[in-house]
Amino acid sequence: MKGHRIDVDSFWLPHAGSTIAKDVDFGWNAVLGVSTVFFVLVVGAMLYFVWRFRRRGSAVAESEVDHNTTLEVVWTAIPIVIVLSLFGIGFKGFMRAAVPPAGALEIMVTAQKWSWAFTYPTGDTSPGELRVPKGKPVKLVMSSRDVVHSLFIPEFRIKQDVVPGTYTTLWFEATEAGETMLLCTQYCGTGHSDMLARVVVMEPAAFQSWLDGLGGDSKLPPEKAGEALYTKLGCLACHSLDGSPRVGPTFKGIFGRSQTMNDGAIVKADEAYLKESIVAPTSKIVKGFQPVMPVFKGVVTDKQIDQLVSYLKTVK
Amino acid sequence: MSATALSHTAESGHPERAGGTPAAASFLTDGRGLRSWLLTLDHKRIGLMYLASTTVAFALGGIFAVIVRLEHLSSGPTIVTAKTYNQAFTLHGAVMIFLFIIPSIPAALGNFLLPIMVGAKDVAFPKLNLASLYIFWIGTVIALASIVGGGVDTGWTFYVPYSTGTTTTVSLMTFAVFVLGFSSILTGLNFIVTMHKLRAPGMTFFRLPLLAWALYATSIVQILATPVLGITLLLLIAERAFGLGIFDPKLGGDPVLFQHFFWFYSHPAVYIMILPGMGIVSEVIAVHAARRIFGYRAIAFSSVAIALLGFLVWGHHMFVSGQSELSSVIFSFLTFLVAIPSGIKVFNWLATLYGGSIALTTPMLLVLSFLVLFSIGGLTGLFLGMLSVNVHLHDTYFVVAHFHYVMMGGTVMAFLAGLHHWWPKMTGRMYSEKWGRIAVGLIFLGFNMTFFTQFIMGARGMPRRYFNYPEQFRPLHAFSTFGSWVLGVGFIIMLVYLLVSLKRGAKAPDNPWGGRSLEWTTTSPPPTENFAEQPVVTGTPYEYPARSRA
Q1: Which residues partner with A127 through β-bridges?
Q2: Between A13, A95, A183, which is nearest B459 by CB?
């Protein structure tokens, strides 16, 4: 996992990069304080008693007190007050994170094994990379095309399952420009731990010009644009570039290669085959592999397919 | 032993044997050969067979854990493929939970001890008890068939629609769990009837040892919660086999419904795992501190409170699942309430240490380890119960560390404490105290190296069930793996000295620790009928004399 990193600037928690992070960290500090005090008291008392009342000679206890109502009421009541305070702090932060402010920028999130795609109000889609403006609330409206996934951005302290057949939502407001990572945290199979995305927080003006260019022509040559898509779409989770088989066949030398399908047919990997394998991946399965690849029809545009095919021709 | 609590004490039992009357044959020698074991109705033999079975399961689950930890020695592929890794963590969880930790204390130690502790000759339904064991073995064989037949890669939680779509042997594994559930239900039923109907004369409920109370609370949960898991898994199998649309949205089902059903069992199941452990701690701490248990009624009632409240908190596994915010708020509130009875127990155990005469025997060291580790497990539960903090920590290594502190630091330490405490009673042999202390030290050290590290990783954002991981986590992952080796060595030493003791251990006296509950009044090991004569109970099992009275 090169190029992905969560910034950690304290012992316990990642860098706080959103407004919600401050609520969560306040709650964390409160419960860490309470826990530390209780732990020191319990273990301290235990160690002291073990030393003070260690067995010397015969097994005769010094005390036979077996209840003390006052003590028992106190050690029940005080923890009740403390845990209810913790509940209140958690409740407050949770409710603030549950209600997105009006006027938030809405981004549709599509999750599938094992990639993320982000569609902006302009209708343009950014696969594998979530770019957002700094200082502006962003609402994610999320859906899954296959199994349950979960969107987690540690530096923003946000997480929500992405469930097939329904929409779930999340919101956040990034507080500083920079880059971090987004991870899938609901187990979803072989490529689960490679289901990552880059999160880029931009100054609002820069974000706007990036968004304007998203649907426009890429200045990159098609094979370079295709190479970027290979990474962003998460193809690498299953298709290696070095010849080793993973969940799917390797892309090394794929173009022009003749392969035996599981029905015995021998198919040469030309442009048409490659395109078919992206939009309808289960129609032809290479022998020795399972029909598990998700359908990318509707996820990538025809132009992006052309770019991917151009790139695959260069993988030798 | 001046102030005797029980009329049938070591004194009244011994002279008879010392006086030349031959002692009744021990249950171990009463019938020899494989057949006498496989067809036995003796709860003690059934308990020992459970003990052997769960020990094998623990070793198997441990092997899967070793694979998982070795894989994490470096990021990227280390020793296995992603597919194998996913199977390894799934099978580690499924084997440890369904084949080891759920049956370990109730079915193994509970079966052996409960009838003796209440002063009975056996459980209420001895044949049903043997049937439970056979059902457990059948379920185990089906689970092993599933592993050999290709394994399962869903995680032990079997979440849909992943589990309905995967090509691995999910149906076979879930069927195994379905079968194992019956074993658990029948054992629970047997224990409840035994405690209601077979208590010795004078053995009121408030004279029961606290382990019996804990097993009673556990049995209630086993009987009420397990059927829900059974039905859920049957529905999952029906969906896989016949396309019945209960959970898969493609068929018109609801995947979150599965999570509700699953946790409706599996959260109470956490209490099936920890309550008997708490019962053992209550016994061991009183005996090895030679002191009356502090707050007998509070400990007894808190077991029942935990069992009942435990049914109402399942939704705290689902704060980010898409369930309504209102549900999450209610579940968070109830979760904080269930923390209270656990806290009360810890305070009572500490108060029991106060003024005791504390012997640092192997069982006591294990109980002290329990107190430290379970405190960490319980307190980190507060982090996860807090709604806002849970959102960040959910499905990270923080959760993995938390439940290992509760399940392994709690239940397994308590199980081992119980095993060492009653080993002389069960086998008639003493083990090496020296090696016992060394093993406990290694296990405590290795456990904390392995799992405390995981709190740090999780808080920093490391998700669980990740084959690959960001390079920044490599040092912590590697340290955790080193810890697992220390832990493993501790367990191997423990297994060796316990096995050695069977052949070469000194003969155990009837009451090596000075315990005052009924099992210490009979011989080590006990006769098949448990007692030479029917015990009559006149006091509580914790009436230790103190210096002021002695």
Answers
A1: A117
A2: A13
Q: Please say if the pLDDT value at position B13 is more than 60.
A: no
Going from the N-terminus, what domains does chain B have, and what CATH number goes with each? 45-521 (1.20.210.10)
- Angle, CA of B251, B257 and B259, to the nearest 5°: 120
CA distances from B51 to A214, B108, B122, B254 (A): 64, 5, 18, 40
Hey, what domains does chain A have and what are their CATH numbers? 105-214 (2.60.40.420), 222-314 (1.10.760.10)
Residue numbers in B near A68 (CB within 8 A) = 351
**How far apart are alpha carbons B149 and B430 in whole angstroms?**
42
**In the 3-class helix/strand/coil scheme, how is B102-118 assigned residue by residue?**
HHHHHHHHHHHHHHHHH
Place of tokens 């199994």: A147
Q: Give dist(CA A85, CA B132) in Å, integer.
A: 45
> Which residues of chain A are within 8 Å of residue B322 when distances are taken between CB atoms?
160-161, 163, 166, 168
Residue found under tokens 């959760």: B399
pLDDT digits (tens, 9 = 90+) for B291-333: 999 999 999 999 999 999 999 999 999 999 999 999 999 999 9
B372 touches chain A (CB under 8 A): yes
How far apart, in whole angstroms, are the C-alpha atoms of residue A3 and residue B385? 33
Predicted-complex ipTM score: 0.90
User: What is the residue-wise DSSP string for A99-157?
Assistant: SPPTTPEEEEEEEETTEEEEE-TTS-EEETEEEEETTS-EEEEEEESSS-EEEEEGGGT
Per the listing, tokens 């005797």 go with B4
- Kindly report the pTM of this predicted structure: 0.90
Q: Nearest Cα to B338, choosing from B283, B391, B270, B277?
A: B270
